[in-house]
Amino acid sequence: MFASDADAGPAGDIRYSIIGGNVDGSFSINAQTGDVILMNRLDRETLDFYDIVIRAEDNVVPSRSATAHLTVYVGDSNDNSPQWSQLQYSQSLLEGLPANTVVTQVSATDIDLGMNAKLQYYLATPSQYFWINQTTGQIYTSMPLDREQMESITLNVMVRDLGNPQRNSAQPATVMVTVLDVNDTPPTFTGIPYNFEVAENRPSGTSVGQATAQDPDTIGTLVYSILSQTSNFFIDSTTGRITTINSLDREQLSNYEFEVQVTDG
To answer: Which of 2, 193, 234, 254 has the smallest CB count inside 10 Å?
Structure first.
């Protein structure tokens, strides 16, 4: 700051002082030269400008003075890291949906300005199943998902700003994706073909054997039935247990063959 006084001698000797706006004593002024000196480190996120009131007065009694305002605007530096809006995300997704299906969106903020606040999202570990839009934070599938191969997967997402130097989030956001089942796999019998033996002349309801099947899907109930027309055997639709309906006579027929079906109705 500079002031002038047309008087001569002490009446023209000017002394400077700060009389207002010096928040937290961040500035001082040289009383003789008027040089304003920064005393503390400034934080734009706390206060982005200062309106300092400076007085210049001569060195006589009574003194005469004048005041002026000095406005100091605090520029931004990349001194803040991005912060996640939340650290954990969870989403369920049906298996078999096409590639580029939206899964969820992660979000972060940065209180700096300009490029220092422009954010870029990325997967901490690349995934063959998912990709992320670096600008929006939206996560998409890279391919149809198969619950029978993968029931859930956890993604770690990082975010960085585009300042110089760049600053990363202190920790990743975690995205848990659960793959929901679709009835897309037929059940299959185990241990086929079946060969059972039963003594002749046993009463009706005698156990012959049991058909068993597996279904990797988690929805639907296995239902067993006999496809071939037979009046001699019965299958429990729930358990697959096969029993006789009539007493069998080996001398009349020593071998029976029939087909069993299982569905996941």
So the answer is: 193
Query: How confident is the model at residue 5, as a pLDDT?
Result: 66
Find the CATH number of the domain harbouring 196.
2.60.40.60
Do residues 90 and 175 share a domain? yes
Cβ contacts of 9 within 8 Å, gap of 6 or more? none
Residue 78 belongs to a domain: no
Categorize the per-residue pLDDT at 239 as very low, low, confident or very high, splitting at 50, 70 and 90. Answer: very high
CB 91 within 8 A of CB 104: yes
Closest-CA residue to 131 (of 175, 82, 83, 180): 175
Tokens standing for residue 257: 């063959």
d(CA 50, CA 76): 14
Whether 157 and 200 share a structural domain? no
